[in-house]
Amino acid sequence: MDTSKQSAQGEQIAPELAEISLVLVETSHPGNIGSSARAAKTMGMRRLRLVAPKQFPHPDATALASGADDLLEQASRHDSLDEALADCGVAYACSARRRGIRLAELDPRQFASHALEQARKGPVAVVFGNERVGLSNEEIERCQFLVRIPSNPQFGSLNLAAAVQVLTFELRMAALDQVGRLKTEPDPRLPAPLAEMERMFEHLQQVLERIRFFGSRSPVRMMARLRRLLQRGLPDAHEVAILRGILSQIEYMLDHPGRDRKDDNAS
Ligand code: SAH
């Protein structure tokens, strides 16, 4: 089987597929990394990002990749999810369970067309959790959307590579669906890189602490709500810079009560 031709064909169908990275967080079994690589490559995808894998590289990973070992060789490795997502504009958290922190939830089909559209603008991440514990709330909060495969409610957790297969299949179907259709002009705004969003959230929390906004409320829960609000709009870098500017001005006014920044500039 000529797999190189297959992947080349995948890229021809939808170059956007190559912009979508699959992020595997703290995978326990190296075999699952290999099976996920195979699942991804069959659907024309190429990018894997591994966050703190328990054992990698490993012969089981190579064996189960069964010809997709090029994806394993090219996979990037990261110490933290933040690091893995730093350059991405949009991240989708895949979870079998609905969580307390409610992100906008997409089914696999809605996810696929949304992610493909976003991938026309830049890097996009699809995040999968550890086999035993899945993704933590903190990890899910780093993402803007939750993707749930609507499986059997009594037995809903798929094997990691099976979940990768279902979601990459949907991406491929969405890509095939676009072929021959007049593509709509994409929205030219690029979502701000997630690293910038994180800096903005840190800054926001600092300022809210300084103005004693949290009071008796839990900063963790309030920040989770504010994250959800601000992430929903997929702000671009310029909009994030405006928010940072507002926060800096609040800090300035606290440090220099009664003085206008304009007065300073004039003097
Ligand atoms: N026991 C874990 C599931 C781990 S399965 C839990 O209950 O959360 C490993 C990963 O596969 C999950 O973290 C998730 O990213 C993905 N996955 C499994 N089933 C899924 C489903 N029904 N919908 C979306 N993602 C799923």
Could you explain how this protein is built, in words?
The chain is an alpha/beta fold. The chain folds into two domains: about 170 residues, Alpha/beta knot (3-Layer(aba) Sandwich), CATH 3.40.1280; about 60 residues, Orthogonal Bundle (Helicase, Ruva Protein, domain 3). About 50% of the residues lie in helices and about 10% in strands. It contains twelve helices and seven strands. A seven-stranded parallel sheet has the order 3-2-1-6-4-7-5. Helix 2 packs parallel to helix 3, helix 9 packs across helix 10 and helix 9 runs parallel beside helix 11. The chain is globular. The relative contact order is 0.13. The N terminus is likely disordered. The structure holds S-adenosyl-L-homocysteine. The site of S-adenosyl-L-homocysteine (SAH) has 19 residues, from helix 8.
List keywords for this structure.
single chain; 267 residues; alpha/beta; Alpha/beta knot; Helicase, Ruva Protein, domain 3; 7-stranded parallel sheet; 12 helices; 50% helix; 11% strand; globular; disordered N terminus; binds S-adenosyl-L-homocysteine
